[in-house]
Amino acid sequence: MLKFLFKTLKIIMLTLLSIVLILIVLVVLFVNFSPEFGGNQSKQKLAEFEKLDYFEDGKFSNLMPTNMDMDFSEAIKMLPEFFKNDPSRRPDFDLPITHRDSLELVTKDQPTRLVWFGHSTFLLQIDGKTILIDPMFGEVPAPNPLLGKKRYSKELPIEVEKLPQIDMIIMSHDHYDHLDYGSIQKLKDKTKAFYMPLGMGAHFEEWGVDSSKINELGWWDEIQADGLLLALTPARHFSGRGLNDRFATLWGSWVIRGESDNIYFSGDSGYGPHFKQIGEKYGPFNFAMMECGQYNERWTDIHMIPEETAQAAKDIKAKVFMPIHWAAFTLAMHSWRDPVERVLAKANEINQPIYVPEIGEFIELDKNLITTHKWWLEPSTSSKQMVSK
């Protein structure tokens, strides 16, 4: 009997060990061969980056001390909280989405306007140019659908395949909720030019984008792009798509200045003095898209809490700002409505104009942008939930 038990235990242990080894092999193969992870920097590029004040030992760094550490015990404690089945973290109804027709987007003679796809993805039309900002159209912000939670909305305002010719794509950094391999594959042949922080070009070249289309910028670099002024400005964040490439590419925010409109896109960022510096150098802005969502007290250095978002909008001298980085994915432990409710309250407190459009709605900068109803509540009651002035 004892011999039988030992034999059974041995078989169970060998089976478990085999499963673990198979999983390890699959992970190694996935990390090394999946195109999702992008490319690596050439020695020539690394040598160029070493000349920068914010690059050392193969890594980019923030301009101010930024805590990126979380000890193992704290990370373990956080796991149950992160995976907790909290119904408040996702909408329990279909979000209202305005669907756009491709013919609407080919008109050249209209004032500056934007279409929000949720989270941080925008289509911007300015001075006759059609631009995509952080085009993440995928269903899951992860290298594999099994590794992340799905987008809230089942549909997009317009499918990627129906988008018109794109004059340029502007990227803030290489995290999965901003840079999506599948989206780039669908967009690369209909896009004339790509603008991104230093180092990100390696991903795009790996994915088949012609190097002549790729433009990389460092912080405070400016470039004239088809009649527009683009400037990559600092952000307080980090980068990385794989297991060992954190800080391998730069991250940033963007100034987009046309003939009459001046626009700011924050990308992802913790709060810091860089917002005032950007406002002093490039402000005022008549419209700003400011990160507001996926925050936590454990990582406030790299993601603003909503009250800081409202203050940052004032720092950059925004005539009106829009909270972004919410309403599409759950990447933190707060309720999905928390970002917009808190930022509205703070913006009203400090008299900072704020606008919260529906997904897919035309955001027309020649109009008076005023949030009139809380669409993020049940659609049947949202029109009755007026926003206090």
From TrEMBL:
Coiled coil: none annotated. The keyword Cell inner membrane does not apply. One of its GO terms (cellular component) is cytoplasm. Residues 130-326 form the Metallo-beta-lactamase domain. Keywords: Membrane, Transmembrane, Transmembrane helix. It holds the Pfam family Lactamase_B_2. GO terms for molecular function: N-acylphosphatidylethanolamine-specific phospholipase D activity; zinc ion binding. The chain crosses the membrane at residues 12-33. This is L-ascorbate metabolism protein UlaG, beta-lactamase superfamily.
